[in-house]
Amino acid sequence: xxxxxxxxxxxxxxxxxxxxxxxxxxxxxxxxxxxxxxxxxxxxxxxxxxxxxxxxxxxxxxxxxxxxxxxxxxxxxxxxxxxxxxxxxxxxxxxxxxxxxxxxxxxxxxxxxxxxxxxxxxxxxxxxxxxxxxxxxxxxxxxxxxxxxxxxx
Length: 153
Fold this sequence. Notes:
The chain has 6 helices and 5 strands, in the order βαββαααββαα.
């Protein structure tokens, strides 16, 4: 499977002068772990939860630190046609949780650990659909842990 099939296509970006506190609020509101920092459509880097923790851990006020001062500019990226396995290996080697997906010098998506977990779980579920013991296990589990409180006998 290719990265383009698994990646998040809606990339959240901020300008370099956003303060880290505002970026953290945006990330929280969107339920994401990173934003891409752009200046005039040029990627300056990525600002992640870890970068925000570094600011706070250093005792700095996140309202007084600009995104461009806190971001990671040593950016690891991947192309949309790369395999998901290649992306996972790259993330593991680089010890990063987000890979911007680049095509024609533009960010077209982002691949996160969360995306890989969703893909992995979906892949495992599809692989086990045909196994007869899985359906039996589901039936047993539904008797032991019914989803409808009144269904237990």
